[in-house]
From TrEMBL:
Metabolic or biological pathway, per its Swiss-Prot or TrEMBL entry: Amino-acid degradation; L-kynurenine degradation; L-alanine and anthranilate from L-kynurenine: step 1/1; Cofactor biosynthesis; NAD(+) biosynthesis; quinolinate from L-kynurenine: step 2/3
Name the UniProt record assigns to this protein: Kynureninase
EC annotation from Swiss-Prot or TrEMBL: 3.7.1.3
Subunit structure: Homodimer.
Pfam families named among the record's database cross-references: KYNU_C
An example Gene Ontology CC term for this record: cytoplasm
GO BP field: anthranilate metabolic process; L-kynurenine catabolic process; L-tryptophan catabolic process to kynurenine; NAD+ biosynthetic process; quinolinate biosynthetic process
Purpose of the protein: Catalyzes the cleavage of L-kynurenine (L-Kyn) and L-3-hydroxykynurenine (L-3OHKyn) into anthranilic acid (AA) and 3-hydroxyanthranilic acid (3-OHAA), respectively.
Residues where N6-(pyridoxal phosphate)lysine is found: 243
InterPro entries (alphabetical): Kynureninase, PyrdxlP-dep_Trfase, PyrdxlP-dep_Trfase_major, PyrdxlP-dep_Trfase_small
Disordered, as annotated region: 1-20
Source organism (scientific name): Micromonospora haikouensis
């Protein structure tokens, strides 16, 4: 490695980020006390503020019992409304369009109940071939639910031969040619494996022009890249909060439904008592009166103790803002890319994430030419204190997270890869 460690330290002084607001795990091996944590795309680190905020909600329950629904600092009945403003701003939604509820795959199913309506020739669901498995299983089970053959119904889009990422034209050309058979487009905004950021506005426009409904899984996009879901005309979207949104393992998910669908009486929907208008909920009538907001998709009353960490994290994003985070993200990932260029030049390693910063978030995925990704990540962790994430058989993912990762973390990744993967001499 010719890039000096001192340069990383200098960059960290000039562009420090917000690491002090997070608990960083200790290193399990290597020369440094703290882990170089590059796995925030899998599970984000814990904000230091989360514990006290969570304990305050727990104490309210102890102190107030059932009265906590209406009393205390943060009454539980309207608790989810505390999250509405921050989550709406995070994804570029109107406050009526965004809500936090359930977990991601559950929400995708609830949304597909409303927005996957196969009819006539138009029955197919378009996903990417490298979709996260949960999404594949979800759409296949939706096809079966409608009495359709999943193999014939789910269309899996592959990159061109020899390419790792999709081109926008690969998607829009397909929509132009076969769009009249496609009922639903459901793609990952940022692909979990390659880190590719798709052109969400262009693909949304093409899908809608072809007559399809366009939904997005934003698990790897929310909190990673700026989003403008309302202005882009996205029909619906969902994302989890435990990756870039740092809300804890299995944390609740966010849901977006575009204004044009709010209040539509013709849409089928699975409902419960939280789907009815809050003002008349306790009249306990036998039929619901859904509000003309995304809250009509809520089913159950939310788990308050799980909402707390999401609220704490969303407030942090709200106070810093995605534009500033994206700026730092471009600098940090650009730096890691420069270091990886040097390390991969004479080793059996290839960065498969697009080189254009506009086509990716913070994650860089590296394909290894020999050995197992799992074995390599184990060595990185135990010999160098570098926490990355393996996707077998051959991809290792590194996500320098703009909130808490440092230039020195990036330097440690490159230094550890250089020490762990042998050079090949031509
Ligand atoms: C992380 C992730 C999931 C996980 O689904 P859960 O329902 O939260 O368990 C689903 N889809 C994508 C694209 C993901 O990245």
């Amino acid at each position: 490695m010719t890039v000096a460690e001192s340069e990383a330290h200098r960059l960290d002084k000039a562009d420090p980020g917000h690491r002090h607001l997070f608990h960083v795990p200790p290193a399990d091996g290597g020369r440094y006390p703290e882990a170089a944590y590059l796995a925030g795309n899998s599970l984000g680190l814990q904000p230091r503020a989360t514990r006290a905020e969570l304990l305050a909600d727990l104490d309210a329950w102890g102190r107030l019992g059932v009265e906590g629904h209406l009393e205390g600092q943060r009454p539980w009945l309207p608790y989810h409304e505390l999250l509405t403003g921050p989550v709406a701003r995070l994804v570029g939604a109107r406050p009526t369009e965004a809500v936090v509820m359930n977990s991601l795959t559950v929400d995708l199913h609830l949304l597909m109940v409303s927005f996957y309506r196969p009819a006539g020739r138009r029955t197919r669901i378009l996903i990417e071939d490298s979709a996260f498995p949960s999404d594949s299983y979800a759409v296949r089970s939706q096809a079966r639910f409608h009495g359709l053959d999943p193999d014939a119904t789910v269309l899996r889009l592959r990159p061109r031969p020899g390419e790792d990422a999709l081109r926008t034209a690969d998607v829009t050309d397909l929509l132009a040619a076969e769009g009249d058979t496609i009922a639903l487009v459901l793609l990952g905004g940022v692909n979990y494996l390659t880190g590719e950021l798709l052109d969400i506005p262009a693909i949304t426009a093409a899908g809608r022009a072809a007559g399809a409904v366009v939904g997005w899984d934003l698990a790897h996009a929310a909190g990673n890249v700026p989003l403008a879901l309302h202005d882009w005309g996205v029909d619906f979207a969902a994302w989890c909060s435990y990756k870039y949104l740092n809300s804890g393992p299995g944390a609740l998910a966010g849901v977006f439904v575009h204004e044009r669908h709010l209040g539509r009486a013709d849409l089928p929907r699975f409902e419960g008592w939280w789907s009815t208008d809050a003002a008349t909920r306790f009249e306990m009538t036998p039929t619901s009166r859904p509000p003309a907001t995304v809250e009509a998709w809520q089913v159950s009353n939310p788990p308050i103790l799980a909402m707390g960490p999401v609220r704490t994290s969303l407030e942090l994003f709200d106070s810093i803002g995605m534009p500033a985070l994206r700026e730092r993200s471009l600098r940090l990932t650009g730096y890691l890319e420069r270091l990886l260029d040097e390390v991969t030049a004479d080793r059996p390693l290839t960065v498969v994430t697009p080189r254009d910063p506009a086509r990716r978030g913070c994650q860089l995925s590296v394909r290894i030419g020999a050995g197992s990704a799992g074995e390599l990540t184990k060595r990185l962790r135990h010999e160098h204190g570098v926490v990355a994430d393996a996707r077998e058989p051959d991809v290792v993912r590194f996500a320098p997270v703009p909130l808490y990762s440092t230039y020195h973390d990036c330097w440690r990744v490159a230094d550890a890869l250089a020490a762990t993967v042998a050079e090949v001499t031509p």
